[in-house]
Amino acid sequence: MQTVFLLFLFILQIIGFYFMALLYMKISKFKNLEKKQRKMMDEMDDAIGAYLAELKMENERLISIIEERQANEEPAEYSPPSQRQPEPERPAGEEKAFTITSPAYPVKAALKSYQTAPLLTKPKLNERENKDAEMDDRTIAIHMHDEGKPIEEIAKRLGKGKTEVELLLKFR
Description:
There is one protein chain. The chain has helices at 2-72, 107-116, 127-134, 137-146, 151-158, 162-170. By secondary structure, the protein is an all-alpha fold. Helix 4 runs antiparallel to helix 5 (151-158). The longest helix has 71 residues, at 2-72. The chain starts with a helix and ends with a helix.
């Protein structure tokens, strides 16, 4: 009887060691995977950092070129494309150098025309929409949802995305 019991314990011990070995292999596999992911994240961070630094340098260079040009040139008056002088033609083998030119329509003139443009008026709203205009978007969304309107229709009415409307409704 004791022999059977000892044999049974021995088999259980062997099974226990087998499962411990399996668990150890799984844990080491996850640790290796975690190390690889950490390494990839570090490489991506470095790549994004280098890209952003390069982008920042290019933006600073562009800003300095624009400022230099603005300091050297006086603002030109707008001339329609039909009144501009055409560029002289270049031989086929000669490439045109890339240059930054100031806009043909000066910023000040564009700003002036924008400020003097008549304000766009909204079309007259019916009685229900007038009542809705007095409420905020969240209240309108809740009322429309309570009426059984689909989220797509609510989003279209409010001029918002479906996800934003879903969040409005979720956080009543």
